């Protein structure tokens, strides 16, 4: 990966800024950070464009592990090297780990209450809404790139509609998208 500057004033964010941004993502998105990553990194901090975010998130999604963890490590490295990766990763994981320990002990005592079960259902619905909203914004950013939309559509059809496994989806979509983009590049020459 090439090193990029932060969009804000042409300087990369410091390790402390990486830590704080991912700490906020971890706190706000406890239980489902996917809906918070793009708004904080693209809209609030202005570190990435929508396209850069989509590309980085796509790369983070095909690497084994949690997408946001991979994204934190990749973005931290891009801006501040290995120390930046550690700062972003620690920021992302610190608050959720502390919250999880506290909630686990509370859930042990109060988990059977109807109000607790209802609150958990509501939180799941809110997270789903955030994911759908971010997907819409990413698709809007890629609306002029027909090939990228075709790949996104094929991925959604494979995993979402056909319920193929992640491995099968990757084995179908990755080579297909590479061939599609290579053919398009040859036509442009």
Task: Explain what you see.
This is Chromate transporter. Pfam families: Chromate_transp. GO terms for molecular function: chromate transmembrane transporter activity. This protein is an all-alpha fold and 189 residues long. The chain has 2 domains: 15-111, no CATH class; 131-187, no CATH class. It has helices spanning 15-28, 34-44, 50-62, 67-110, 114-141, 146-161, 166-188. Helix 1 crosses helix 4 and helix 3 crosses helix 4.
Concise synopsis of the structure shown:
The chain has 189 residues and is mainly α. The protein has helices at residues 15-28, 34-44, 50-62, 67-110, 114-141, 146-161, 166-188.
Instruction: Tell me the quaternary state.
Output: single chain
Q: Which strand-content bin applies to the residues?
A: under 5%
How confident is the prediction overall: mean pLDDT?
A: 87
- By DSSP, the count of extended strands is 0
SSE class:
mainly alpha
Distance between the termini: 25 Å
Element order: H for helix, E for strand: HHHHHHH
Largest sheet: none
How many distinct helices?
Answer: 7
Q: Which residues sit in consecutive blocks of at least 5 with pLDDT less than 50?
A: 1-5
In angstroms, what is the radius of gyration?
A: 19 Å
Shape: globular
The portion of residues assigned to helices is over 70%
Give the total of domains: 2
Keywords: Cell membrane, Membrane, Transmembrane, Transmembrane helix
Subcellular location: Cell membrane
Pfam families: Chromate_transp
Protein name: Chromate transporter
């Amino acid at each position: 990966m090439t090193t990029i500057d932060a969009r804000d004033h042409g300087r990369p964010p410091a390790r402390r800024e990486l830590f704080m941004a991912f700490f906020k993502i971890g706190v706000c998105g406890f239980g489902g950070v996917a809906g918070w990553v793009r708004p904080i990194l693209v809209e609030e901090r202005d570190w990435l464009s929508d396209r850069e975010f989509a590309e980085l998130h796509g790369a983070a999604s095909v690497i084994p592990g949690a997408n946001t963890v991979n994204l934190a490590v990749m973005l931290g490295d891009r801006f501040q090297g290995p120390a930046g990766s550690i700062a972003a990763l620690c920021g992302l994981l610190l608050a959720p780990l502390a919250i999880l320990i506290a909630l686990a002990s509370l859930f042990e005592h109060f988990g059977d209450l109807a109000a607790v079960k209802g609150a958990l259902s509501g939180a799941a619905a809110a997270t789903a809404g955030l994911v759908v909203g971010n997907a819409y914004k990413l698709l809007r950013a890629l609306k002029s790139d027909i090939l990228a939309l075709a790949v996104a559509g094929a991925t959604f059809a494979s995993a979402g509609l056909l319920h193929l496994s992640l491995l099968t989806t990757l084995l179908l979509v990755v080579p297909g998208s590479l061939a599609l983009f290579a053919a398009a590049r040859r036509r442009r020459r």
